[in-house]
Amino acid sequence: MAKNIANRTDSGTNDVRDRILETASELFYRRGVRVVGVDLVVEKSGVAKTSLYRHFGTKDDLIAAFLKREDLDFWSTWDRVREQHPEDAGAELDAHFEWIGERVGRDNYRGCPQINTAAEFPESDHPARKVAESHMREMRRRLKTIADGLAVAAPDRLAGQLAVLINGAFVSMQVFEPGEATSLLRDAAHALIAASRS
After folding, report:
1. Which of 13, 44, 12 lies closest to 28 in space, CA to CA?
2. Is the separation of the CB atoms in 29 and 77 below 8 Å?
3. Are 69 and 75 spatial neighbours (Cβ–Cβ below 8 Å)?
4. Structure pTM?
5. Are the beta carbons of 106 and 59 closer than 8 angstroms?
6. What is the distance between the alpha carbons of residues 11 and 17, in angstroms, rounded to a whole number?
7. Using CA atoms, how far apart are residues 100 and 182, in angstroms rounded to an integer?
């Protein structure tokens, strides 16, 4: 019986934390991290300020949690796509451009949360910037794995070029015509790959 009560308490605690994080994530993404204060998060999530600080010691901790949540979402999609092309690096890369192109083409897309937040926090030791930089390093690492499978002369250089290409798409959504992002990404990547093999 005591175990069931404990489970209900843990579940309620997790529900409150999830509600705070869900609300903060939506506000941070749509409005920007610096402009959204904890009072607005408290108001929109319907929780007490003490609850917010119980789960997230500071606003910086809440921002870092938001980025980690976005990170998990991004990499889980990446992993699902990768698993569909275990032996074909070229097909995997094209498939990544398919979902990334679709993502940046959404009406409600406001850019990469990691890039956006890193731009708001120039301090290298800020918790949010550390999460954002970790995301960028992971992107480069994963692209290097793909580049290794493409039989190019300089896989690490190609990985860096592909990272610049993808990050460029994340911040260029306003200039894309509807449905254009995927083909632009794919064509540019194929040109980079061809140049890496010549």
Report:
1. 44
2. no
3. no
4. 0.85
5. no
6. 10
7. 7
